[in-house]
Amino acid sequence: MRWTDDRGGNVEDRRGLGGGAVVGGGLGTLIIAAIIFFLGGDPSSILSSGSGSGSARTEQRELSPEEVKIGEMVDMMGKWNTITWEQVFKENGMTYDPPKIVLFEETTQSGCGTAQAAMGPFYCPADQSVYMDMTFFNELQQRFGAKVTEFTVAYVLAHEVGHHVQTLLGTTQKVDEMRRSGRYSEAEMNRVSVATELQADFYAGLWAKRTDAEKHILEAGDIQSAIDAAEAVGDDNIQRRSQGYVNQESFTHGSSAQRKEWFMKGYNTGDIRQGDTFDQLLK
């Protein structure tokens, strides 16, 4: 992935600041979080489910040179997202407001509750912010078999920004209304969740296409690294690795094949109008 001089992606870096409390949700909470931790929509139910016990962290430390570079990379990627989505929204007669990107370690407070590293990267609609503990990418490589590159991070961030796009377009609110209405079964809402997540993958692919056309950021292997990450966190791969079998009815994010398909559809078309996963998957 080729770096540019773009910065100013609305990043708040909380790493090394100390403070906060480790939520004592217990092993059960962490197992549930591990299953749904990656690229979720609104994680508030998991974030709020633990008890408030735990020890406070008060020490502060300086970031290492490597950590500083990672922060600069995320800042650059955040700016890329802002530039691309401002253009897409402008083309469709709308105004884009970027999300805040919060880098943290171990635990921090979000508008959706206490964020923990075990949750992985997530978007919180309540404060329109993306939360990322960068140690997640070690987990992605070691537990789920994805080779992590710089563009893997770019894909993950672009997916989470895709959830922000859904919030700005009202999609997130409509899905929440469906969930709260009580008119839909768990299986039906799982299918809605899959459509939501696959649309965020589509938006990530669209972002990659449009950003590369403007900034020429892609190098050999970058798109494949995004595909590898998308496939690694397909519901079938996660279930097979965590429980030894696959239950398609319980999918909430889509299979490995679906995640690749919709990311590549976004990348190949670069057209936001082609990303109606709900129409395609909920007929």
From TrEMBL:
Any matching Pfam family: Zn_peptidase
Annotated transmembrane regions: 21-41
InterPro entries xref list: Uncharacterised_pept_Zn_put
Signal peptide boundaries: none
Keyword Transmembrane helix on entry: yes
Protein keywords: Membrane, Transmembrane, Transmembrane helix
Membrane protein topology class: Single-pass membrane protein
Localisation: Membrane
GO cellular component: membrane
Protein name: Metalloprotease
Organism expressing this protein natively: Chryseobacterium taichungense
